[in-house]
Design goal:
Radius of gyration of chain B: 14 Å
CATH class of the largest domain in chain A: Alpha Beta
Number of helices of chain A: 16
Oligomer: heterodimer
Largest sheet of chain B: 8 strands, mixed
CATH architecture of the largest domain in chain A: 2-Layer Sandwich
Structural class of chain B: alpha/beta
Helix content of chain B: 10-25%
Strand content of chain A: 5-15%
Largest sheet of chain A: 5 strands, parallel
Shape of chain A: globular
Distance between the termini of chain A: 54 Å
Shape of chain B: globular
CATH topology of chain B: Glucose Oxidase, domain 1
Strand order of the largest sheet of chain A: 12-11-10-13-14
CATH superfamily of chain B: Phosphohistidine domain
Number of domains of chain B: 1
Helix content of chain A: 25-40%
CATH topology of the largest domain in chain A: Aconitase, domain 3
Order of helices and strands of chain B: EEEHEEEHEHEHEEH
Number of strands of chain B: 10
Chain lengths: 422, 144
């Protein structure tokens, strides 16, 4: 690998042992994939250490104690509890206390305490062409696809990128790897504004399941607000490991079909209609119509201010069923904006909780964490949501039954305590 | 006949151990019981990964897999070598680099016809080779 003089000096330890160690990992990583040089990255979404993983907090404390500080603007991914009000999620106290140590270390490292899967809703908006390092599949696919920033599917090494400001020039950092590979025509896509989050999620899930880790190009989508694009990407990154897609006429590397494919021919072409989407919803759902439920969740990925406004408008003056826990998940920054806007009060008066920093899947309700803390399993019997990502992971990691439905019916299900089909 | 397969060393090291053959894609998040370090489903269900060389086609699934691998290392339940047909996804490569687990990628899929779960093999990722240790296979044991 070709290194700059500064990189060589960093590797030799001239900027401290800690930085040398971090850069050694980045270089070793690049060499494994034959990267020719390192890229200067300009933003990082950091993999926040979660207390549900053994030893994770201790490692972070060591990392912070080595005088590491982030070199670039850095936001942070989710935790296993709402650390502004841990009692709200029912997390065991010991686990919350352990998690709070992470927040102290993050502050020392210079990381913004965003604790979210939607940092783009917290002002992290890297410009077109900016190389970045990021965790959280739903954020990565948004940065790459909607903004045209340059990101690979980051993991634990993202923290080494945060302190060194470096990442190997490989994968989606390189223009030629960003060409579309598979073409999808969308037919009779439902566009009702309240209903359609479910359909965007279903579409993403179906596309992702066809392409694995390749780059899909989606044609004939309507103009949509930012939240729908977040939903679409999150679902693609759930059924497949898609990190980049193009939507012709909507995303910056796809003004035309030809541009999306960089002048090449698609490897495959497929039409997706309402029939495929319905079939995906039915396959993911294992609750029967009108079956009793005990959990309802919106905010996967974490909700925006506008989505909280809509939730407040919908829930105003209503009460959710006594047997149901209803979480709307968001980031603490968006929650505080919604607080100032008066939305949180309206939502919570209905019995719904607005949860920040976490979500059911990342929380103590995971089967493996329940085993460790001797909690009843599963923590949820039957959950209703409008998100394929939430449905897929709660099923596997929490062990509950799941029902997918439209956003409007999610609210209605919470009021009635039973699963209302879309 | 010497059975050896060549590939690209993603993480360098040398180890001799029993192999576990998974002739399809695999994810540490979802396919492994995190507290026991055993395989959750399929033909190898219940087999512990501890001290084994794990051979599969390609990595799949969430970025959480890397964390699960490191958790297995901390619990001393992790494999000691990994071999794949395709290049690993970045997350799994990161996990293997951090835990210093020798990793060989880009081996021929013929490896699934030549090695069986329970065989002993020597993995040398410095030279990019995995070699079946003669007479270690289940078949030759049965012949004896």
């Amino acid at each position: 690998m070709r290194l700059t003089e500064t990189e060589k000096r960093m590797l030799e330890g001239q900027f401290g042992e800690a930085l040398a160690k971090s850069l050694q990992y980045i270089v070793q990583f690049g060499e494994a994939f034959d990267a020719e040089q390192l890229e200067d990255i300009r933003y990082c979404h950091y993999p926040a250490e979660m207390a549900i993983y053994e030893g994770s907090i201790e490692e972070l404390q060591e990392f912070a104690a080595e005088q590491n500080v982030v070199a670039i603007p850095t936001t942070s991914s989710t935790l296993c509890a709402d650390m502004q009000c841990p009692e709200k999620t029912g997390i065991p106290l010991a686990l919350a206390q352990n998690q709070s140590k992470a927040c102290i270390a993050h502050r020392k490292l210079g990381i913004q305490p965003t604790y979210t899967c939607t940092p783009q809703l917290n002002g992290a908006v890297p410009a077109f062409g900016t190389p970045i390092a990021s965790v959280e599949s739903s954020a990565i696919i948004f940065f790459n696809s909607l903004l045209g920033a340059r990101a690979n599917r980051g993991g634990l090494f993202t923290k080494f990128s945060a302190v060194t400001g470096k990442y190997p020039k490989m994968g989606y950092m390189l223009e030629e790897n960003r060409a579309g590979q598979h073409q999808f025509q969308v037919e009779d896509f439902p566009v009702n504004p309240m209903e359609n989050s479910l359909w965007w999620s279903a579409l993403g899930f179906v596309v992702g399941s066809h392409v694995g880790s390749d780059v899909p190009v989606v044609c004939d989508l309507p103009v949509a607000p930012i939240e729908r694009w977040i939903t679409l990407g999150a679902a693609m990154a759930t059924s497949g490991s898609v990190s980049l897609f193009h939507a012709v006429g909507h995303t910056p590397e796809a003004h035309t079909l030809d541009m999306a494919f960089q002048g090449k021919k698609p490897n495959s072409t497929r039409t997706i209609g309402k029939k495929e989407l319905v079939s995906a919803i039915e396959q993911m759902t294992n609750l029967s119509s009108n079956e009793k439920i005990d959990f309802v969740c919106l905010g996967c990925p974490h909700y925006s201010l506008e989505q909280l406004r809509l939730a407040a408008a919908w829930l105003q003056g209503k009460k959710i069923d006594a047997s149901v826990r209803f979480w709307i998940c968001t980031s603490r920054m968006v929650r505080s904006m919604a607080q100032s806007s008066g939305y949180i009060k309206t939502i919570e008066e209905s019995g719904t909780k607005v949860i920040a920093d976490t979500c059911p899947v990342e929380s103590h309700m995971r089967i493996s964490t329940c085993q460790e803390y001797h909690l009843p399993i599963p923590q949820i019997q039957a959950l209703v949501t409008d998100s394929f990502k939430m449905a897929r992971y709660t099923k596997d990691l929490i062990g509950c039954k799941v029902g997918l439905t439209t956003t409007e019916k999610v609210f209605q299900s919470a009021l009635e305590g039973r699963y209302l089909v879309w | 006949m010497v059975k050896e397969f060549h590939g690209k060393g993603v993480v360098k090291g040398v180890v001799t151990a029993e192999v576990v053959i998974i002739p399809h894609s695999f994810s540490f998040l979802g396919d492994v019981e995190m507290n026991l370090g055993t395989i959750l489903a399929g033909e190898n269900k219940g087999i512990p990964l501890k001290n084994k060389i794990l051979i599969f086609t390609e990595s799949k699934g969430s970025s959480g897999g890397c964390v699960v691998l490191l958790t297995l290392v901390k619990k001393q339940l992790s494999p000691v070598g990994i071999v794949t047909v395709k290049m690993p996804d970045y997350n799994l490569a990161e996990g293997a680099i951090l835990s210093h687990i020798p990793f060989l990628a880009n081996v021929s899929p013929d490896i699934f016809d030549s090695l069986q779960t329970g065989d002993q093999a020597k993995l040398d990722t410095i030279n990019g080779i995995i070699t079946l240790i003669p007479n270690s296979s289940q078949r030759s044991k049965e012949a004896l």
